[in-house]
Amino acid sequence: xxxxxxxxxxxxxxxxxxxxxxxxxxxxxxxxxxxxxxxxxxxxxxxxxxxxxxxxxxxxxxxxxxxxxxxxxxxxxxxxxxxxxxxxxxxxxxxxxxxxxxxxxxxxxxxxxxxxxxxxxxxxxxxxxxxxxxxxxxxxxxxxxxxxxxxxxxxxxxxxxxxxxxxxxxxxxxxxxxxxxxxxxxxxxxxxxxxxxxxxxxxxxxxxxxxxxxxxxxxxxxxxxxxxxxxxxxxxxxxxxxxxxxxxxxxxxxxxxxxxxxxxxxxxxxxxxxxxxxxxxxxxxxxxxxxxxxxxxxxxxxxxxxxxxxxxxxxxxxxxxxxxxxxxxxxxxxxxxxxxxxxxxxxxxxxxxxxxxxxxxxxxxxxxxxxxxxxxxxxxxxxxxxxxxxxxxxxxxxxxxxxxxxxxxxxxxxxxxxxxxxxxxxxxxxxxxxxxxxxxxxxxxxxxxxxxxxxxxxxxxxxxxxxxxxxxxxxxxxxxxxxxxxxxxxxxxxxxxxxxxxxxxxxxxxxxxxxxxxxxxxxxxxxxxxxxxxxxxxxxxxxxxxxxxxxxxxxxxxxxxxxxxxxxxxxxxxxxxxxxxxxxxxxxxxxxxxxxxxxxxxxxxxxxxxxxxxxxxxxxxxxxxxxxxxxxxxxxxxxx
Length: 640
Hints:
Elements: H1 15-26, H2 28-35, E1 66-67, H3 69-80, E2 85-90, E3 97-101, H4 102-118, E4 126-130, H5 135-147, E5 150-153, H6 160-170, E6 174-178, E7 181-183, E8 186-188, H7 190-201, E9 209-213, E10 227-229, H8 230-235, E11 246-247, E12 251-257, E13 265-270, H9 272-286, E14 293-296, H10 303-315, E15 319-323, H11 334-342, E16 346-349, H12 351-359, H13 362-366, E17 375-378, H14 385-395, E18 402-406, E19 416-417, E20 432-433, E21 439-442, E22 453-459, E23 469-470, H15 474-482, E24 489-497, E25 503-508, E26 512-515, E27 518-521, H16 522-529, E28 535-545, E29 549-558, H17 566-576, E30 585-588, H18 602-609, H19 626-638
Parallel strand pairs: 2-15, 4-5, 4-6, 5-12, 6-9, 9-10, 14-15, 14-16, 16-17, 17-18, 29-30
Antiparallel strand pairs: 1-11, 2-3, 7-8, 12-13, 13-23, 18-19, 19-20, 21-22, 22-24, 24-25, 26-27, 28-29
Helix pairs in contact: 1-2, 3-4, 3-5, 3-10, 4-5, 6-7, 9-10, 12-14, 16-17
Domain AMP-dependent synthetase/ligase: 75-461
Family: Belongs to the ATP-dependent AMP-binding enzyme family.
Domain Acetyl-coenzyme A synthetase N-terminal: 17-73
C-alpha cells in the first residue's frame, strides 16, 4: 500500500469530511440546498436538482432561484471588506505590480459593464475575451456576468482559424482583445490575429465591436467604427452598474474544449449551480480562508482559470494572484519569487510546471523562503509519485498538504481529490470523490466494478457544477457523455480503485491527448494536417513525455514517395489549431495499421511511437499485419 501523507493527523479522513459525505448521501436535496446558502440570492431556490441522465438528458440546478454571479463575487465583499485585496496582478517585468481592492475591482467591473451595455450588449449575448494574464481578463469576465452576457474566453495561443471557428459558433457580438501580449521574451500579436479571425468569419461574423486593451502599448491597426480603445471607453463610464438578475440556469459562460471529432465542443455552464460548486470545492479542497492569498497558475482561458482563478476564490472573499509571465523567465525560480513577494498561501499548478522545476538545480527552490505556503495543489493531468514527493518536500518543506485534483471542463470543478486538512494524499493517486460525487467504475459491458478494480470512470448522479449542455447541440452532448454507459455520465477517462477506495486515473480512453494540461482532440489535429495537400492521410496519437505528461505524435502518409517537408505539417497545425498543438514528432510512413473495415488502430501507433513493443496484441484483424513491423523499423530509423 502507498503511504498516505497527512501532516495534520494520522486519520486519513477527518470526521468533518465523513459527516459531509454521509449528509450528501442521506439527503442530497437538503445537502445541496444548504450549500446554496453560500451565495446571495434575489430569489432563494426551493429545489436543488431536477437533473436526469436518462432519455434526452437534463442537467438542472436551483432552477427556481435568481441571482447575479458578479454580485456574489464583489458587492457583498465590498460591504464588509472594501479595502481588502481582491486581486494582485504582477507583470513579468520588474516593477509591474498592482494590488486591486474589492472596492476598486467592483468599480472597474461596473465601468466595463456600462461600456458593454452602451455598445448594445444584452442579457444572453456572447462576448469573446481574448487576453493574456492581465487584470482586465478577470474584469472582463465579471463585467459580462454583471450584465447577464455570456462570456467566451479564448486561449491566446489559438490560431486565427481556431478563433474564427469559435467566434462563428458562439455568435459573439463584442470581442475584448489585447494590442500585443507578452510571453517571456516573445511578443504575441493578439489584435492582428483577431483581425484575421474576424475576416475569416466573412459574412458569418457577428462581431460588432472590438475593445483593445493596451497591454504593451504597441501601435495596432484600428478599424474605424468597429475597434475601440478599452482605456478610453471605460474612462467615460461611472463606477456603478446595476446587476442583471439571472435565473440560476441561465448560462454564465461558454468554454470550448477539444473533442474526439474535429469540431470543438462549446460547453455551457450555469450561473447558480456552477457558482455553488466553485465556492464549495474551493473552500473544501484547499481549506480556503478569506485571509488566503490564492494563486492558481492556470490561464483564465481554461476551466481551471475560470473556477480557481476567478469565481471560486472571489465568491469566497479571498485574494487572487494573477501573474503574466513564465515560471523560469527571465531567470529560474521566477514563480518562487512571486510566491515570496506576494506571501502566497495556497499554490495550485500543473505537473508540467512541477516537472520543469525538478529539472532545475535544487538550490533554485531551496534559496527561496516559501514560508507563507500552507497548501499545495496539482491539476491538469495525473502527477507521478516522484513529482508529488518532490513538490511536498522541496516546495512545501514537508509541511504543506498536497491536493492532487481530478476534474474536467465538463465538471466545472474538482471531483476527486485529497482535501487539505480533511483527506490524506497518496503520491500518484487522485484521491477520494468529494461529498455528493457518485463515482462508479464500469467494465466494457457497462457493468459496475465493485471494490478494487479498473474500468471506465463514470458519474451516477449530477452535481451542481456540471455543464448543462453543448452550445446549440444538445444531441451531441447526450451522445458524447451519456450513451457509452446509459444512465451515467462517462468522463472519457479510465481509473483504478484501490483497496482503500482511492482512485488512480489511468488516462484517456478516447482520442484526446493531454499535453501540459491542454486537452487536444486528435481529430482536430488531423483536420489541420489534411490542409497540407501533400498528405494523403494522418493519425495523431499521444505518447508519454517526462515533462509534458503526454506529447503529440503524428504519423503522416504522403501522396508521393521521396522527399517530404515535415515542417509543412507543423505550419498546418500551427495555422489550423495553434502553436501550442504543434507535434513533438512527425513520422513519415507508407501506410497506417487498419482493420479490414478501414479503422485506424491507434493503440498500435501509440505503442510504436512510445517504443513499447511488447504485447502488441492480436494483429490478425489488420488488413495488412506486416505494416506493424515496417512501422517499427521506420520509426526507429527516423528517431536516429
